[in-house]
Amino acid sequence: MKKVSELNNLCDVPACAIIYSLYDTQHEIWPSFLQVQRVLKKFKTMPEMEQSRKMVNQENFLRQRIEKANEQPKKQRKENREKEMTRVLFQSLTGKSLHSLNMVSLNDLGWLIDQSLKEIQFKIKILNEEEENKQVQVKPTKLLVPATIDH
Length: 151
Hints:
Helix content: 55-70%
Structural class: mainly alpha
Mean pLDDT: 88
Strand content: under 5%
Radius of gyration: 32 Å
Number of strands: 2
Shape: flat
Number of domains: 2
């Protein structure tokens, strides 16, 4: 009930809750029976596509959460690998040999170098465009100064 109330108050979202149980004959309604009727009426007047757009049942909700949770470690491993390859790259620039790296690590290092070059080229392009825009904006103009007449 607290979460529905927060959603209603903090986000200005029309919300209601009807909580019932197979084991309890008394059900709970929030905020009131009249408010629940208003929200349901508004919901029923919406187009069917809009009604079901973000609707999920508990099974689908849990499945989505599990997928998201499974993606986190993959994302973290990729991020860690990029950091590791960045460290190897900087060490190689200070003279450390790459002979101890296996083929997978060398491929990852090559990918990292390619990505870094693409980033650099993109930044150079943006800087060149900004410089061109500045030059266009600072175009010299002739000033017309009225002649003064001495009497």
